[in-house]
Each structure stands twice: as C-alpha cells, then as structure tokens.
Amino acid sequence: MEKTDVLVIGGSAAGLVAAVAGKATYPEKAFTLIRKEKQAVVPCGIPYIFGSLRGSDEDIMGDDPLTQAGVDIKVDEVIAVDQKEKVCKTRNGSDIAFDKLVFATGSTPVIPKWLKGTDLDNVFTILKDKEYIDSILAKMEGLKKVVTIGGGFIGVEVSDELNKRGKDVTIVELLPHILGLAFDEEITIEAEKILRSRGVRIMTGQGVKEILGNGRVSGVLLNSGEKIDADAVVLSVGYRPNTALASGAGLDLNDRGFIRVDEYMRTQNPDIFAVGDCAEKRDFITRRPSGVMLASTGCAEARIAGMNLYKLSTIKTFNGTIAIFCTAIGETGFGAAGLTETIAKREGFDVITGTFEGFDKHPSTMPGTHKLVIKLIVGRELGAVLGGEVIGGASTGELTNILGLIIQKRLSIDSMLTAQIGTHPMLTGTPTAYSLIQAAEVILRKQKG
What we know:
- The chain is of the alpha/beta class.
- It is built from 11 helices and 26 strands.
- The longest helix is centred in the C-terminal third of the chain and has 14 residues, at 435-448.
C-alpha cells in the first residue's frame, strides 16, 4: 500500500495551489497530488484555445510548481474513499493511505436533460480536458455555422474566439442580456455592442426548445418557433460540482450539491478538506449560498486549506466569495466585484451608486489610451463599498481586483477618498481625476446633496 501524509484529489488550479501552499506551510509532510489527466489545462485559458492560441499545447498548466515544491504527482483516478481507514482506492488498482485528504474534484458542464438533441454529433460542451478539447478543435475545422447556447462568460468568450477563426457564430441567451448574472444592464449593453461589432450575432430573451438534426446537428429550434441553421452547437449553460466521489465517501453535500465546508475549508471530517468548484460557498456580503465557480476563488480557498491542514489559524479563513469576475471582448475589459446594483437592491440593501468615466492613461492623447468606466455600489448608511464594475483596457483586471480588496476589507467611501495612489502617464489615469477616487466623489456628492 502506498502512503502519504496529504493526498490531494484533482490537478486543476485549486488542487495545485492546495498542494503547493500546504507543502510550503508543512515542509516536513509528504504531499501527493492525484489527477486523471496526463496534462492539466489552464481552466480560464480554455476558451482561447479556440482562437487566440494555436492549440491546447499552449494552455498547459505545467507541473513545475508541484515538482519544485516537492509534491509527488500520480496520474490515476480515485474511485473510492474510506474515511474510517483513511485509504483511497484508484482505478489502476492502487491503495493510497493518507493522514489528510483534500477534495479538488472541480465541476462538469451541465447538459440539460429536458433538451432534445444534446446527444447529436457536433454538440459540444466546454469540458476541462485536453483530449476532449483537441477533439472539438479537429471537428470544428470543417464547420462554419455555430450556435452557442448560453451567454455567460464561457459562452461569450468561446463565441468571440470562434468568430476570430472565421466561424458564423450566434449566441442564444434566455436572459434579457448576455453576462446578465454578473453585470448591471448598462454594462451588459456595452458588452453586446462590442461583441456585435465584431461579428457575433446575439439573440437574448430566447429559449431553446430543441437541437435539430438526424445523427448530426443541423440547427436549433427556439421557443419562439424560429429555426437557426447550425453545423455545431456549443452548450454553455453552466457547471455542476463534481461531488459523486465525496458523496459516495459519506461526506455531506448542501442543497446545491456542493461539499459542505467550514471557513477553514474542512468537511464534517476534520481530516478531509474541499476546495474549488466542488466546495460549498457563501456570498461574502449577503451570506447566502452561492453557486460561483471561479479558479481565482478556488485558489483562495486552496491556500486557506493548505495552511490549515495541521494547525488552524483564525486569521486564515475563507469568509465568503466576493465573486470577482473579469473578461475581455477585443481590446475592452469588463470586470465586476461584489454585488451589482440589481442584486443589492433585490437583497434589500439601501444603496447609492456612482459612475465616473475617465481614461486609463494620461493625457488621454497618449497612444493606446482606453476609456475607463468605474461604477461603485455603496451602502447609504455607512458608505461601505458593496460592489463595483469596470469597463476599460488592459488594467481592467487589476482594477477589479482592487475593488475586491476594498470590499473584503470593508472599506468605506471615506477610505477611498483618503487613499494614496501612484500614477504614470503610460500606466494609469491622471492623479487629478483618478477614476476610482472620482467615482467615490460622485457618491460623496450624492450623500451631501
């Protein structure tokens, strides 16, 4: 029987970080990471395999962080976990004994059972598997018309990338706007304008009744009765936690099928942890159960789990997901952190919003300058920042991260107004009208007025 101190099941982002962070915290312990795939792909990079990258070989996570940290890698699949005996059985017939166990089993694409035609040839999901992605790329070579069902982040990114490769792409989205769960309406409308200008057709407020075809996809039938010709369909209607192994081991799942965990990422068994898409989450602000699945969130959870494996720290806890999203359509970035105005009001928060439009360089005549829009959502009573949204250039991602930190530290508008910043003409907006601070000043004027 093989033995290890810490066994991590799953080799994507959360599993990798849990192993590396754990080994750094407890270097005297033996760590083993087991995964099914010979090569793990970078999950957030998968959409770009369909356009910007030359193939899946350019989206490999790489084993260097694990091997350099001293983590053993085993390519196999765990098929059963015995909590009492602390042993995992693998598909290849191995038994692995462990002291601590981390589930990082991720998620799998949702395939709606009610939707007829999902079993037709050339109906694809975005599975986090290199060989499967390679098979999609090979089949896509001879196909022209693609319908993407679902206008969330993955659906939008894959559609834009396929459009780059000369495909005729249509997004069908049930909600009134694409990206409608992550952004307020005015932000989604701007995203739609840019995507349409790049050649992607968007049909919102439309449900799909059936995928048409005889053996192979020929089209999509909408609830309205309209038919859209298609050579391929990309199903992008969400992901579900991959928790069958955990459930079979007797671990508790919540009502949404996620593994129940505490703020140290422990399951009900203090020697078993869960991180990433398979692990339960609560919203940082509303405290409600959350279905957010982000590699960045999973990595934060993984660091916390790794540090708490053998010794708990009350200052190293996961206190809820802030849901920090960002994406890019062409040269324009879109980011959001915390609550949107729509969700904040629906939850019953009394909010003030402030929006400022500036530029990401100064003066605005600098080459490559991009318009920068910052929207803040703030609690009226105390001025605490509950959420923020960004439209901008290359700095959008990091500005969104700053908003996430502001929310996590529960900073107020006063803190933003007194913040010290560094600026440079080629890298940031002007210090005299820095967009984050200017948006805070809009809030201040509304408070005073």
